[in-house]
Specification:
Length: 75
Amino acid sequence: ESPLVLVNVIAPIILRLLEQGLADLVMTGGLMILSGILEEQEAEIIQKINLRGFLVKERQIVDDWVALVAKKETA
């Protein structure tokens, strides 16, 4: 487990990585930074990471692209 995981790929790949255990790489209390997300895909990503114990702490947007900083609250 790591205190920080950074993923900068498009949303469909982020979703696939989450299904394959990406969230398990982050220690409880650690951060996961996800970028490469289009605005219209953001809600689905947030829903999936919330189900895995993460809470979004920060959101940045540039043009149509979103980056999320999420903290792992529970294992």
